[in-house]
Write a structure and sequence with these properties.
The protein is α/β, with parallel strands linked by helices. Helices cover 25% and strands 18% of the residues. It has a domain of 352 residues: Alkaline Phosphatase, subunit A (3-Layer(aba) Sandwich). It has 12 helices and 21 strands. It binds 2-acetamido-2-deoxy-beta-D-glucopyranose (2 copies). It catalyses: Hydrolysis of the 6-sulfate groups of the N-acetyl-D-galactosamine 6-sulfate units of chondroitin sulfate and of the D-galactose 6-sulfate units of keratan sulfate.
């Protein structure tokens, strides 16, 4: 009897064991997530998007092996709000990264400001912890430099990089150089322990950031734990830099040298993933925080391809970004998706990959792009273009409606600050803030990606026209959109009003 019982237990144990093994085989750990976020890199900087020098072979190959998104957008034309939107899945007007001190003014966190990411916001790495992820940020944080805003206080487990841009050098009396951190410790400063030679453009930062990425990936692989790597490097933000082997190698000058070094680094990250056998279990997404900074071009700024103006503006050049998704074995090679995508979708998509749901106690603006990446689905959705607290424009389908047009003030313009150098579209690239809320200025982005030929009212269906003529917000309220018609009908949305949380202080 005892022998039989023992045998039965043994058999049962064997069953349990093989079921557990099966479970492991069928539910491997959730995919790793690698977000490669560039700084001020433009849509037109990639060979695959038509850059004539064709100096991005690794990024072009990444696109050929995955999915290219030609219609992918930032959530703001400036770095801090855009990064806050990526990590919270929410528009800057919801997560606090805006100012109400001036109309249509973008807000960010230079070293002089005391504000930063509110504790009440749930950041992607905080949420990914629930699914066992280890998270690292490499490079620029830009969501506040005071202790309460430290990335390790907001879900990241590791950090190598800086709270701010690599501006400088400063005199260290009135203003210290910008610090560089490893986790909680300040390990040096730009222009000191981490030299940037403004004369030659030489700096080794991209190489350091690359090494950090390779090392982190390898360590997590050894631990057999899922990881989130947020590689937020900044060599294409003025002052642009590259290491010695890349300096002077581009057809495009120093900015191109920086691009070449980044392209080479992306190639090394992807081949490292392949080398460790992780490529089928790692989604890699490449994009940029805002459009190329044409104020710094052509020496220190990139290209927005056929799009109008650049960083700081809500024309296409300010917010349409290069974007590539790569996940061999899952995302089929050689695809182009015309899905309207947003940097905020990376939040929701990452949670979905991890098997998590976005927080339900707040509005999340990001969509889950997995159905697009894996099944080629196209979802109808608007893209909102904010400048500070002001909704400047909306795109739905092929149509873009501008409620406000503005480049920068005449005062700034006369001092030589120009967000649209060499581009003057009469009545569009205005230097006074022009209101079009009664009668939006509408472009067809398919036929006119450069926003040069506004549609006349008579070119729109009558139904759209009566919608456009209605409704306006009360002062002091921000604007959100309600979709009334599908983009197939060629209509743009009607507005509705909402109160919003307080601004960045
Ligand atoms: C970069 O690293 C090389 C090799 O270690 C070194 O010779 C060079 O001085 C470094 N350059 C800067 C700007 O730090
Ligand atoms: C742009 O062109 C318009 C008309 O063609 C002109 O009135 C305006 O002054 C120009 N603006 C700039 C900034 O050159």
């Amino acid at each position: 009897m005892a022998a039989v019982a023992e045998a039965t237990t043994g058999w049962w144990l064997l069953l349990v064991l093989s079921a557990a093994e099966l479970a492991v085989a069928h539910h491997p750990q959730p995919p790793n997530i690698v977000l490669l976020l560039m700084d001020d890199m433009g849509w037109g900087d990639l060979g695959v998007n038509g850059e004539p020098s064709r100096e991005t072979p690794n990024l072009d190959r990444m696109a050929a092996e995955g999915m290219l998104f030609p219609n992918f957008y930032s959530a703001n034309p400036l770095c801090s709000p855009s990064r806050a939107a990526l990590l919270t899945g929410r528009l800057p007007i919801r997560n606090g990264f805006y100012t109400s001190s001036a109309h249509a003014r973008n807000a960010y966190t230079p070293q002089e400001i005391v504000g930063g990411i509110p504790d009440s916001e749930h950041l992607l790495p905080e949420l990914l912890k629930e699914a066992g992820y280890t998270s690292k940020i490499v490079g620029k944080w830009h969501l506040g430099h005071r202790p309460q805003f430290h990335p390790l206080r907001h879900g990241f487990d590791e950090w190598f990089g800086s709270p701010n841009c690599h501006f400088g050098p400063y005199d260290n009396r009135a203003k210290p150089n910008i610090p560089v951190y490893r986790d909680w410790e300040m390990v040096g400063r730009f222009y000191e322990e981490f030299p940037i030679n403004l004369k030659t453009g030489e700096a080794n930062l991209t190489q350091l950031y690359l090494q950090e990425a390779l090392d982190f990936i390898e360590r997590q692989h050894t631990r057999q734990r899922p990881f989130f790597l947020y590689w937020a490097i900044d060599a294409t933000h003025a002052p642009v830099y590259a290491s010695r082997p890349f300096l002077g190698t581009s057809q495009r000058g120093r900015y191109g040298d920086a691009i070449r070094e980044i392209d080479d680094s992306v190639g090394k990250i992807l081949s490292h993933l392949r080398g460790l056998g992780l490529e089928k279990n790692t989604l890699v997404f490449f994009t940029s925080d805002n459009g190329a900074a044409l104020i710094s071009a052509p020496e220190q700024g990139g290209s927005n391809g056929p799009f109008l103006c650049g960083k700081q503006t809500t024309f296409e050049g300010g917010m349409r970004e290069p974007a590539i998704a790569w996940w061999p074995g899952h995302i089929a090679a050689g695809q182009v998706s015309h899905q309207l995508g947003s940097i905020m979708d990376l939040f929701t998509t990452s949670l979905s990959l991890a098997g998590l749901k976005p927080p339900s106690d707040r509005v999340i603006d990001g969509l889950d792009l997995l159905p697009t990446m894996l099944q080629g689905q196209i979802m109808d959705r608007p893209i909102f273009y904010y400048r500070g607290n002001t909704l400047m424009a909306v795109t739905l389908g092929q149509h873009k409606a501008h409620f406000w047009t503005w480049t920068n003030s005449w005062e700034e313009f006369r001092q030589g600050i120009n967000f649209c150098p060499g581009q003057n579209v009469s009545g569009v690239t205005t230097h006074t803030q022009e209101e079009h809320t009664e009668l939006p200025l509408i472009f067809h982005l398919g036929r006119d990606p450069g926003e040069r030929f506004p549609l006349r009212a008579t070119m729109l269906p009558r139904k759209c026209w009566s919608i456009l003529a209605r409704g306006r917000c009360l002062p002091g309220r921000s604007v959100f959109m309600e979709l009334l018609f599908s983009s197939q009908e060629g209509c743009v949305p009607l507005w509705m009003c909402e109160t919003t949380p307080g601004p960045l202080s």
